[in-house]
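Pinned message: reference record for Transcriptional regulator, AsnC family
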Amino acid sequence: MEALVFINVDIGTEDSVMEQLSKVPEVSAVFFVYGPYDLIVKLNSDDAEKLRAIIRDKIRKIPGVRSTTTLIVAKTLQRAGPPY
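Predicted structure (tokens):
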């Protein structure tokens, strides 16, 4: 199961939160973005219960994390070769 977690953080904590997120084994990518959210995390989990535990016990407990919104990926289409 793949999910995208949209995260809002306290001002000035972006880099430290990104560093902590990168240490979570289930996290495959962390993106700093501009817009209504500060960070987007791509993560993988075996099932919905484990996904909930990762978000509840690992991501939301990182100092500086204010809120999360999670989207579960229904289908993925990946481009072959370089993106440009």
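Pinned by admin. Summary line: Residues 67 and 75 are 25 Å apart (CA to CA).
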